[in-house]
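A quick word before the example. In earlier lectures we treated sequence and structure as two separate objects. From today on, think of them as two lines of the same record. Here is Sugar ABC transporter ATP-binding protein written that way.
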Amino acid sequence: MATAAPGTVALELRDVSKTFGQVVALSSGSLTVTTGSIHALVGENGAGKSTMVKIIAGLYRPDGGTYALFGEAVDFRTTAEAKDAGIAVIYQEPTLFPDLSVTENIFMGRQPRGRLGRIDRKAMDTEARALFARLGVPIDPERPADGLSIADQQIIEIAKAISLDARVLIMDEPTAALSGVEVERLMTIARALRDEGRALVFISHRFDEVFSLCDTITVMRDGAYVSTDRIADVTVDDIVRRLVGRDVDDLYPKQEAEIGEVVLEISGLTRAGLFHDVDLQVRRGEIVGLAGLVGAGRSEIVQAAFGVDPYDAGTVKVNGKKVPPNDPAAAIRLGIALVPEDRRKHGLVLDSTITRNITMAIRRRLSRAGLLSSGAEVTTARDWASRLEVKTTTLDTLAGTLSGGNQQKVVLAKWLSTRPDVLIVDEPTRGIDVGTKAEVHRLLSELAGEGMAVLMISSELPEVLGMADRVVVVHEGRITAELNREDATPEAVMYAATNTQGASA
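And the structure line, produced from the sequence above:
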């Protein structure tokens, strides 16, 4: 598909609106994107970004406003029509078929045919390998998608979009679960696509990425257009004020807390091929950051400690009591809570209400004589939803309809309702907006101040350095450094994360 000359208006939306019943998802969305450029679209969760992207992609039809593609008015009725017109979208959450191979996922619905009309699997495999070579990632095209990390799933979605040779490419939080090396690789690819004359829309809550990658930035708030500027003409502070309508003075509100006795003690934890001889302690009132590159084994360590996954050797103790392996229910009873990395897949029941999601882990506790008290359930859910400031008109709202930030708050509420001694949070602010990030960070700091032991996994180095009292770094399943807050510099953490000379403990 031929690309237009650089600077040509590729995508233009003017005062686009969309309502769902009484809910106004988008009141006046506007966006103008030109070829040969990367255009940032930013806004808090609930600002209308996702709704506008779904209109662009043909998933929704607008109620009002205008939508033009390369100067021609369009009214897509299906996503297939949008794809045929040259639009590709990489959504925040991967949408792979787990039982199919990586290659089959990339070419789903458009498999090349050979003689006699049979699917040409060799051609598919060859192109898939070429795509991953271009991305610089060693993913086996023949392996099933099931079991892939979030990072690998995102890379496959990117490969799928690139294979479509789209003129307009929309990336919705594509780097949310990627390591620094993987992010830089993606940025290199994005710049190459821009230089080919394509138009890119980049949606991210990470301002360092936005300001290093994008040429132009559009801000949305409360379903409406706020501003568009050249990146060179604005600062991060300018954008934050426009995003939230206020100053966010402290994104990492780390308060001092009294550090007490050891609550969580992991000793010699080992699982062949994933992690080896892991020793880790978290004390009362302490936030420990578990850092490392994606794939280092951080999530696997905490999942084993919680009992979700097996391990070959080692022990896990809470308050001196041994946690039985492979028994999450026992871990919960002993005081461990785990907020998983993938909130939609492992943290929520999307077609259940906020109330049911928040009380899911404590329903037995709320029951009397085997009968669940609906009054106690509603009261508990209301109390936690209020404390975490879940934005909703009713607790009967389905969790799947909430914004990413509010979904994360519901997952946190579910586990905090168990009143744990140890809170393990895996990527607590992945894919949520700057305002909600500050709220989550404030909550973690408050919980530590109340005496909770917090173990936080994060791929965002500023988050680790801003919130942790101590940083434990993992490289290829082994702990390579343990750094006090004052010693945890970006350089020290990255040396340890890559296991190169210069790391200090």
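Notice the following. The longest strand covers residues 9-20. We will return to this example when we discuss secondary structure assignment.
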